[in-house]
Batch of 2 targets.
Target 1
Amino acid sequence: MLASESALSVGWFLDHAWVIPIIPAVGFALIILFGRRLPMKGSEIGVLSMVSSLVLALGAAYQWIQRVDGASGEVAHGLVKAAEGHSAPYVGPVIHEWTWWQSGGFEFGIGQHIDGLALTLLVVVAFISTLVQIYSLEYLRGDRRYTHFFAALTLFSAGMLCMVLAPNMVQLILGWEIMGLCSFMLIGHWWEDQANARAALKAFFTVRVGDMGLLVGTGALFFGANQWTQEHLGVSGFNISGLSAWAMSGEASKSVLTWGAVALFIACIGKSGQFPLHTWLPDAMAGPTPVSSLLHSSTMVVAGVFLVARLYPVFWEGMKIGDTNINFIVLIGGVTIVIAALLAFVQHDIKKVLAYSTVSQLGYMMMGLGAGAWLPAVFHIFTHAFFKACLFLAAGSVSHSGSHHSFDMKKDMGGLAKKMPITATTWIISTLALAGVFPLAGFFSKDEIIDNVGHNGYQAFMIVGLSGAFLTAAYMTRATYLTFFGEARGAAAGEHHDEHAAHDDHDAHADHDAHAAHGDHDAHASHGPHESPKLITVPLMILASLALVAGLANATPFGSNWERFKKYVEPSSEYVAVEAAVAHGPGEALSPVVVTAEEAEGEAKSGCSYEAPGAGEACYFPAVSHAEFKWSKAALSLLIVAAGLVSSWLFCVQYYTRRNRRLVGLTSRNVVLRGGYTFLWNKYYLDALYEKVIVRAVAHPIAAAAYWFNQNVLDGIVNGAAKISRRTAGWVYRNIDQRVVDGAVNGSGAAARGTGGALRPVQSGKVNQYGALLFAAAAIGALVLVIINT
Amino acid sequence: MLTVQFLLLGAVLFCIGVYGVLARKNAVMVLMSIELILNSVNLNLLAFSQRLDSIDGNTFALYVIAIAAAEVGVGLAMVLLIYRNRRSISLDELSDMKG
């Protein structure tokens, strides 16, 4: 046991991972307070705090790898006994929790819960945030709210980091809400434009609708689990380890689990832009491009996916993921993949294509989680972050230097590949990674999701995933073609728009004030599109190279030695003694590996989540199964992707460049196609449904009733009260004021005058007389005193 | 008893002082009479202090002496100013405060 304790090392970085979100939070305060006075207007603090967070996160990740390796080494040397049939022992998360506040006997904690999942997100978030901030140095140069932008961006990252390492639901909600607020501030960064302010409000309120689910779900699970967790683990029902163990214990109430999971998933639908609450996400493109990049790659929208991955036992049990062929999560994920991918075809705005692409990819993650493919889904978060951040930043680079701040692919882009070689190269690499071309990052994660979804018995959704892969390849090819190939149009051809209003819907860079401060920007018009400066291209190149190689972090096709994510990130699904994963207070290390030799993992479904743990034991993660990689299956999906790429490319060449007569205008000639196009163009009428039907149905009667109540009841009361008070006032004036009060005042005046006249002779002005009066009074006083006392 | 004699002496001094305040026309004499009154009170305080074997009376007497000194200081200053303005300190002529 002693040996294993030394092996399960808890290094300084792992132990102090809670510092990671505090650094940007402090950075935010510093930027707000002193940012304007600093030479770089506060941006240096933002970049510096993100770099420090990244260093700490990398240190913690390194120590986590050592910890897992150490535990595996112990098994190899026979020092610690692993469960039969398992090669790796249980490696518990590093948990510290302090009491944050108390209320009514409930304790609310704050601290850290560090395991492979948290570390993956910590590293990704800190990394992408750093690059995005560096990119913003150039992209927002001269913006009128430059300092505030960096403050909000830094706080945003702090919120995500805080959420990622939350040991309990309370801290998770804290980080979640900080992000909600900051997304509002950032999307509405150029709020002078009505459309941007509307988009910010829409994002905020749509996510709020889902957030109700978060509160309800957290509350339901707390009241369901608190007694059990207090009794068995000594932690509250907010604790994530506690909730996991409770969900897997077999003693949890099924209905509480189900409804809790459904409520939490509604929150994820709102946050992660799943159907039908995805409508806020494309509108969120109103914010500056770096914000879109950060929002869509590693933070905010990933928060919902993270929540499902984090509380996976709850969802696993609540949705019965292990036993069914269809459930709420997988259904929503599958629907989202297809509808968002279809919407991406009809967009003119390059950023909206990417937005719908994000929605669709989040659908993949949700579908994977819903079908028991936990590891591929989490891995997809990891790879998707790099290439999606790269795509957004490349789109920003195009608008910054290539299309004169326009994002309209049809009007202002085309043929930019020659003018902007670096941007085009990084974009194409990321596009291929997103489409899932071997051996780029997206292939390893997306293909694994599709494969595992089928393996776990969700065959229908495997087909959805494959068709999604086809659509992804096709719409990304279309966007690539429109932006970088074909003939140059509009601003890309060097035309200068005098009317910025023509294309300033989305990026208020076209906003004249911000833009006049740019100084050199009007020069674009004269010498046309060109490559962006280094501050923009270097982050692009870093992200593109990661989009190339990040997939190798869990390259299933190359054998189990390449499955590093499986080894380091996936929690072990073992029966462990209950104290193993729960630790309190600062400096308290975890108890060492405790593995009880239960029956081996066989072909039959057994182990955690299939059999309840025994007394004194708990499970913290369900025993998910992994699909065997087969090149035949991968070849099928690769073929589908290739078909998507090629067919879309051919179509684009015919349609956009050759203007093939049979294709152009087809949507206006053919009734079916026209209907489909209109349906997609109007985004399935969901916005209309929300704004015209639901809002009107709910808000208008309420408003009408409120108006009626206001006019008739409230005004009646007010008017009546006014009349009564007016009459009362008249009576009071005549009787009380005129007679009583004035009488009293006049009477006292007269009395004072009379007394004054009577006392006048006393004031003779002679000191002796005054003295005589004084002594007479004293004598009388003395006399009275004597009489009273005798 | 000894106390009674002290008190009688105090009473006599008090009466002389009151007479002086009421009857004298000279402002300085009035001030002196006031001193007499204060000292008669001091005598009373000390007599009772002696009788009750307590230090409190002595303390009060000391306070009274200190305040009397201040009072005489202020009083003489006023008398001096009155003299400078009117070349007389007769109280009969001072009736400007007549209401």
Target 2
Amino acid sequence: MDRQLDISLTVNGEAVTRRVEARTNLVDFLRYELGLTGSHVGCEHGVCGACTVRVDGRIVRGCLMIAAQADGTEVWTIEGVSETGEIRDLQEAFVERNALQCGFCTPGMLLTLSEMMERFPDAGRDEIREYISGNYCRCTGYQAIVDAVEIARAKGGSS
Amino acid sequence: MKPAPFAYARAVTLEDAFGLLTEHGDAAKILAGGQSLMATLNMRLSEPDVLIDINHIQGLAGIEDTGDTLRIGAMTRHVDIETSPLVAAHAPLIALAMTHIAHPAIRNRGSIGGSIAFADPAAELPACAIALQATMHIAGRDGTRHVAAADFFRGLYETALGPEEILTGISVPKIASGWKSGFMELARRHGDYAIIGLAAHVEISGDTFGDARLVFFNAGDRPVSAQKTAALLRDRTWSDDLADQMAESLKDELDPPDDLNADGPMRKHLAGVLVRRTLAPLAAPLTGEQ
């Protein structure tokens, strides 16, 4: 059985075909094969959330899924959702409220929060914190991140 | 870290998967949701030669109302259980447990079958399966067999699954009238593995308890059903005195391990705290129905 295989998927709306090592995880594939370095690699065992990307409409850990499993799926990364403007209000609120410092967690944080705003548009502060409990931020203490969600929502809520 | 090299095989039918298991034996691992497996591979705690991906086998995912039970397919992802009206209505214990399982991104991918077959002693769903007296459906080349949850978990990460068998689903009896469920766990951060947790399923008529099942997780090498302590509830109403008796009883009945998060005596203490916090609201529906 081969340790290399061909995969075809859609990334940020574009069709992609590549030959990958079976052991290559999704986030490394996006970063090294496609040059999409917005998704970050932190702990590599599913704890920190820096590698969060969207696969078939749901956020996942890019380090806990191999690229081979993404064959046939539709993947969106921070680059894609930034370009479409889908999360513009949230991004502007992050800037306005200083909801980042080093920025390492930010792409994963934004993708997680955009899913939360879609699933739970009325989430209170505790629920927001619960939803991002799987995304580590070592700079902000989370307060400003939660504030940013409230600001983005008040602006009309495009997550 | 990166995983050691392995080959990847996508099974499309159970027959495919059995063929691959026979061919590769111990060198193969089944890839379900992958949310525990991939982490252990990344840390090189495990170095299989082949991953057999069962995500594309038809019929392994979904929640079905079969009359007296809910049949939940092994590849049903946590998020689909969390948002299922059937589960909320008929298996509230599982519904309560779901949001304690890791984090949204992990629940989007992780599966109930993976969680049960992996049998982490700190996992929520094995304890729920025992408390609800669920049945595990196991497929092998020679057909399907059915194992009671209480007989399924055999030790640390050990289950009744044979080397060439696959867990295909779990049947959960619907909650009977007069029964209530409560679920709670103590963790330093929401979504982390519990220091200790409790899945409670109790019969209560008016304010008087009847049958009760109290299953603790991360309290031993597998889920621990505290039957002696649960029996103290029979024909009693809730009181501080009863809570104290149960907490005392748990100190005898449980033998939890020491680790970096807590030592055994602390876990025993926390077990009593969990009983109090979980059962008091069930006994006082007006102040906190669950």
